[in-house]
Design a protein that fits this description.
Layout (H helix, E strand, L loop, with lengths): L14 E2 L9 E4 L6 E3 L2 E8 L10 E5 L17 E3 L23 E9 L8 E4 L2 E2 L1 E6 L2 E7 L5 E4 L8 E9 L12 E3 L2 E2 L3 E4 L5 E11 L5 E10 L6 E6 L2 E6 L3 E8 L13 E8 L5 E9 L4 E4 L2 E4 L2 E2 L2 E5 L13 H13 L4 E3 L7 H10 L2 E5 L9 E2 L2 E2 L11 H18 L5 E5 L8 H13 L4 E3 L16 E4 L3 H10 L5 E6 L11 H6 L6 E6 L7 E4 L5 E4 L28 H8 L3 E6 L2 E6 L9 E9 L2 E8 L8 E4 L10 E11 L11 E11 L13 E3 L3 E5 L3 E6 L5 E6 L2 E2 L6 E3 L6 H5 L2 H5 L2 H4 L4 E8 L2 E7 L7 E8 L5 E7 L4 E2 L2 E9 L4 E8 L12 E8 L16 E10 L6 E14 L3 H5 L12 E10 L19 E2 L4 E8 L1
Parallel strand pairs: 27-28, 27-36, 28-29, 29-32, 32-33, 34-35, 35-36
Antiparallel strand pairs: 1-11, 2-23, 3-16, 4-5, 4-7, 6-14, 7-13, 8-12, 8-16, 9-15, 10-11, 10-13, 17-18, 18-21, 19-20, 19-22, 22-23, 24-25, 25-26, 30-31, 37-38, 39-40, 40-43, 41-42, 41-44, 44-45, 46-47, 47-48, 48-49, 49-50, 51-57, 52-53, 53-54, 54-55, 55-64, 56-63, 57-62, 58-59, 58-60, 60-61, ...
Helix pairs in contact: 1-2, 3-4
Bound molecules: beta-D-galactopyranose and magnesium ion.
Length: 977
């Protein structure tokens, strides 16, 4: 076996000396003694900018870990580089598929020693992930070579090791021909980023096991275990134990055990029932040579009657796309981080994960088996930049893999590695042939391979949506980012395959508008079986600023070129694992019980596949102005898939107030992922029965009509409006001023990432300063108030009238009236700069987390208290944030200060943060915002929705694009208490 670094550029060389891929079952000696020795930890390390350059002096490095995240703030081993479609070397060296950059192919050399544990007859080594290629030497002899960053590589070292100290040297190359088929949209980094383990195998060894279950008509399950043994001659029998029974067969190179479970509890995400399965290899005396363990689930999945079914029921995927990520460790994720994600997803009603875009650490599948999440397992394959260039789909002779023979084996080996390792996981329902790799013969061959080896699963490939030459490459129709309307249209014509969206709802920044358009479609159109939100987590990384602060950064922040900026921070959860308000919406649209509440009752829909509602508590509460008046808890039966109307358990009062009826489904018992009492579904009806407030117009004696200002005061409270600018310039009580500057008309909210992608700033630029630079052309006293007429700083000079009315109790009610033509605006309302000590908010409106007009699902009307600026660093690019919709009352208060109270007869969009929209949009990062000196309150009649079908052109849906018509008005009452 020969290796030379020139092979790095040969796509036909991707594995030298690699052991065959196999199932990821656990095994140990018959005695229970471990067969493994972890080689994680500190390794010796040196680095060179390319394999033939001078290496740095030896230092150390942590395994698992990325090379580029180690070595300290000067990045001595190169920096991470974030690119999406373009290949990382684009603009540096013009090369063609297979070739690798000549000037820049950073190479890390790892070195460590080990002493063979006593009694090991054989010695092997397992690398679970080496990005992008690994060459290994043991005691100076070449041991093997492997590409495919996310697939396991195992080498046999038995012939190379000796007693005493042994030395391993691994070279890890940042680029290899394999990099051409790893063009995933993510941070490009290299190194041994997954565990390295030395292991032995007992005298006889279960090298591979494939377990298949089939449900019988009588409810029993046939369980077939196909076992492949190594050194079978050293064993006499194989004993399989399952569900309290054992089956014993003579040992052989292959052993097929036909076991059974009499009446199995089936596996599903709703009830993840697992059965431990144990295989022992026995010697002639019945002694156990080796013991292997895995957990199996009994379930039946496939396309039946034209739709995907699980255990006989039509399935709906409520999914997310998930990359392995950690702001701390990059893709070298820990078990704890992964389990946190799984619990977080379960608690937000997510039932499925697509392992975009590569096989994950094996513990992910263990966790999904155990907690109950469906998985689309994806082959480590993406060639995006080889066929979509500068946003135009243009395949050419370099497009990969297509039918190119020299790439075929490398590509197919990746499917085999995934299948072999993960085949026994109940959670894996669908195999995905990779992401965005165009179409062609090789992908079709991959599909056929996966079907041949595994008839029990469905094969998915989205790429056929771009290249229909081999449409059968995918068993199901899968698309990315069409609007819900486009899905409807597609399915109206194409009824031959069930459909999912393997990516939808691009969750970048302030996004996730109108997700219900998609999620409801799954209950209207049987062929639409759900989707996977892009994406679960921001790929943000920690970085130290020159002043010592540690901050979260995105593409470009390491000075790398080229880069694709903020497109890597498009998650529902921040890189340091904080849920954004988008998760509130996810929880709302993905809930298993839909409940629509109106005055006639509650319409319930059980959207589970297998779980009756009576397993849970159904609590119905009556609230008035945010306070609970009554609660009733029911045990209501409702079978899976069924709907039923339920009358309200109490009469709805007619009395003055804002009444709600809140329905909540909660866990009656603890589960593995949440405690009893945890609410899994909510519904709410809002009944606005507020009587119009009667207010006595202020005595004329309270007015101070002076030369420069109009004042209204009783000596304790005070308002002042400037007669030039027509602006409110003072708002006080007891001598304390609340305003930090004049109130402004406001038509602007800081553009979101989605707005940027849709050129919203281009189309709406004039609204950015329209209110801020408005001029008053008339300021006059009227009975009980002051009327101001403004001309906006727009070319059309649209007019807005503000009528300020005051009462004797110190309340002021302003009504803003739009005098222009019908026009779409980002926002319409008032901006109040307040003094900074006002730092607490209480609202009666939708919450608790931020909402947008098109993102109210999952929010509840109620009284919510939170600090000013809560979560304002949650979007990595500063943008519109912190709004609460459906607000009828708000107060902003601070220690030792009077509070500003606000109310509206209708409802408003309210926000209280630290920066104006203009300030927000001027920063690229949170830490670049000016120092906090004010509290900025915005009260608006309406605001443009978040949108988010995609972030490259999609607009918020029409009903959520706020439009003004002549005569539209907004009324707000303010007072200081
Ligand atoms: C898809 C792709 C993802 C990601 C996303 C945009 O086209 O599959 O990997 O790039 O778009 O964020
Ligand atoms: Mg891509």
């Amino acid at each position: 076996m020969q290796f030379s670094e020139s092979m790095l550029a040969d796509p036909r060389v991707f594995a030298l000396g690699c052991l065959p891929a196999h199932s990821s079952h656990r095994f140990c000696f018959g005695s229970g003694e471990s067969c493994e020795l972890s080689l994680n930890g500190t390794w010796g390390f040196r680095w060179a900018p390319r394999p033939d350059a001078d290496f740095t002096p030896w230092t150390t490095i942590r395994v698992p870990g990325h090379i580029q995240l180690q070595g300290g703030p000067s990045y001595p081993f190169g920096t991470p580089q974030y690119v999406n479609k373009q290949y990382p070397w684009d603009g540096h060296e013009h090369i063609h598929p297979g070739q690798i950059p000549q000037r820049w192919n950073p190479t890390g050399e790892y070195r460590r020693t080990f002493v063979l544990p006593e009694g090991w007859q054989r010695c092997r080594i397992r690398f679970e992930g080496a990005d992008s290629a690994l060459a290994l030497w043991c005691n100076g002899s070449f041991a093997g070579y492997s590409e495919s960053s996310f697939d396991t590589a195992e080498f046999d070292l038995t012939e190379l090791v000796h007693g005493g100290e042994n030395e391993l040297v691994a070279r890890v190359y940042r680029f290899s021909s394999g990099s051409w088929i790893e063009d995933q949209d993510f941070w490009r980094m290299s190194g041994l980023f997954r565990p390295v383990t030395l292991f032995t195998t007992p005298d006889a060894h279960l090298a591979d096991i494939r377990v298949q279950t089939t449900l019988g008509a009588d409810g029993s399950a046939a369980v077939q275990a196909d076992c492949r043994l190594e050194n079978a001659q050293n064993a006499s029998a194989l004993r399989l134990t399952l569900d309290g029974r054992t089956w014993q067969l003579p040992a052989g190179e292959t052993v097929c055990v036909k076991a059974a479970i009499a009446s199995p509890r089936l596996w599903s995400a709703e009830a993840p029932n697992l059965y431990p399965l144990c295989v022992e290899l026995l010697d002639a005396d019945g002694g156990v040579i080796e013991r292997s363990d895995l957990d199996i689930g009994v379930r039946e999945f496939g396309i039946h009657g034209g739709v995907m079914t699980l255990n006989g029921r039509r399935i709906v995927f409520k999914g997310v796309d998930r990359h392995e990520w950690s702001a701390e460790h990059g893709r070298a994720v820990t078990y704890e981080e992964t389990e946190w994600d799984i619990l977080n997803l379960k608690r937000h009603n997510v039932n499925a994960i697509r392992t975009s875009h590569y096989p994950n650490r094996t513990f992910l599948y263990d966790l999904c088996d155990r907690y109950g999440l469906y998985v689309i397992d994806e082959v480590n394959l993406e060639t995006h930049g080889s066929w979509e260039k500068r946003n135009i789909i243009q395949p050419d002779e370099y497009t990969l893999p297509n039918g190119r023979p020299e790439w075929r084996d490398a590509v197919l080996a990746r499917a085999e590695a995934m299948y072999q390792r993960d085949k026994n996981h109940a959670c894996v329902l669908i195999w995905s042939c990779g992401n965005e790799s165009f179409g062609g013969e090789t992908l079709k061959a991959m599909h056929d391979y996966l079907h041949a080896v595994d008839p029990g699963r469905v094969v998915h490939y989205e790429g056929v949506a771009h290249d229909r030459r081999f449409n059968d490459t995918s068993d199901i129709e899968s698309q990315m980012y069409p609007s819900a309307a486009a899905v409807r249209e597609f399915l109206a014509e194409h009824r031959d395959k069930p459909m999912i969206l393997c990516e939808y709802g691009h969750s970048m920044g302030n996004s996730c508008g109108a997700l219900e358009e998609y999620t409801e479609l799954a209950w209207q159109e049987p062929l639409y079986q759900g989707g996977f939100l892009w994406e679960y987590m921001d790929h943000a990384l920690w970085k130290q600023l020159p002043d010592g602060r540690r901050v979260l950064v995105y593409g470009g922040d390491f000075g790398e070129a080229p880069h694709d900026g903020e497109f890597c921070v498009d998650g529902l959860v921040t890189g340091d694992r904080r849920n954004s308000a988008k998760m509130q919406a996810v929880r709302g649209v993905y809930q298993d019980f839909a409940m629509e509440v109106d005055k006639d009752g509650i319409r319930l829909h059980n959207r589970t596949l297998f779980t009756n509602l009576d397993r849970y508590d159904l609590t119905i509460a009556l609230t008035c102005n945010g306070e609970v008046r009554r609660t009733v808890t029911l045990h209501q039966s409702l079978a899976p898939g069924e709907r039923c109307p339920l009358p309200l358990p109490f009469a709805l009062p007619e009395a003055d107030g804002l009444w709600t009826v809140d329905a909540a489904v909660s866990l009656r018992e603890d589960t593995s992922w949440a405690k009893a009492g945890f609410v899994i579904a909510r519904g709410q009806g809002i009944f606005d029965r507020r009587a119009a407030a009667d207010s006595v117009p202020a005595d004329e004696a309270l007015f101070a009509d002076c030369d420069f200002n109009y004042g209204v005061t009783d000596g304790d409270f005070g308002f002042m409006i400037n007669r030039n600018s027509g602006r409110l310039i003072s708002l006080r009580r007891g001598g304390v001023e609340l305003l930090a500057g004049p109130a402004e008309l406001n038509f602007w909210r800081a553009p979101t990432c989605n707005d940027d992608g849709a050129a919203m700033p281009f189309h709406f630029a004039k609204w950015a300063q329209a209110g801020r630079y408005a001029q008053a052309d008339k300021v006059e006293r009227v009975r009980g108030g002051i009327r101001v007429h403004y001309l906006l700083a727009t070319e059309a000079r649209e007019g807005v009238e503000a009528l300020w009315k005051f009462d004797n109790a110190g309340r002021c009610t302003v009504t803003l009236t739009w005098e222009g033509d019908t026009v779409e605006v980002p926002e319409f309302g008032l901006l109040l700069p307040l003094n900074v000590g006002l730092d607490r908010v209480s609202i009666l409106g939708l919450g608790p987390e931020e909402t947008m007009p098109d993102r109210e699902r999952g929010a509840l009307f109620g009284r919510w208290d939170y600090p000013v600026g809560k979560d304002e660093d949650i979007y990595m690019v500063p943008q519109e944030n912190g709004a609460r919709t459906g607000v009828v009352e708000a107060s902003v208060s601070g220690d030792g200060m009077p509070a500003l109270r606000l109310s509206t007869p209708g409802s408003m969009v309210f926000s209280a943060g630290h920066w104006t929209p203009n300030e927000l949009e001027n920063a690229r990062h949170f830490w670049q915002l000016p120092p906090v000196t004010r509290t900025i309150v915005r009260c608006a009649a309406g605001v443009r929705g978040a949108g988010g079908d995609d972030s490259w052109g999609a607009l918020p849906l029409a009903p959520y694009r706020y439009t003004l018509h002549r005569g539209d008005s907004f009324t707000l009452t303010l007072w200081v208490e």
